[in-house]
Amino acid sequence: MNVLEAIRLRRSVRDFRAEAPPLGDVLRLIDAARLAPSGHNKQPWWFIIVSRKEMLRALGELVQPCIAQAPYCIAVVVDPTRTRWAREDGSAAIENLMLAAVELGLGTVWIQGSLEPVEAEVKGLLRVPESLKVLALIPVGFPEQVPRAKEKRPLSEVAYLNEFGTPIPGWA
After folding, report:
1. Is 0.90 surpassed by the pTM of this model?
2. What whole-number distance in Å separates Cα of residue 78 and Cα of residue 36?
């Protein structure tokens, strides 16, 4: 599979089979994440693999129920004092992780918005130091079913040449 195919196939998966993928595959996801670019190569990230059922249940109750259903959840932690681009760098790492998951036949979903209001509780559960930020939680597992593709706006509506609103010749 090439990267463009992985981008086309990636979906947000919230329903997981009970069968857990090998831990080695989850480590491959983190390996892909750590290879992401980062501003000035600061690499302001850490990745916590959560596999204990009671912790997954607690995260599911705190943040989003689908976490409790997944065999794994990866907490992406960044250090905002290491670089002012920690959020962007962590986001690049997450996208690498999620595209690698497609290659391995795994499902993921990026959970961030519902995490923010309960970040302090999540930090406590995962023993994350106060100075760090839990940027996202990524449930990981074999998809129960792969969601259908959502319709995306056509390229002609989102790409312009030289200035906003100028169509690209030959692209309808």
Report:
1. yes
2. 13
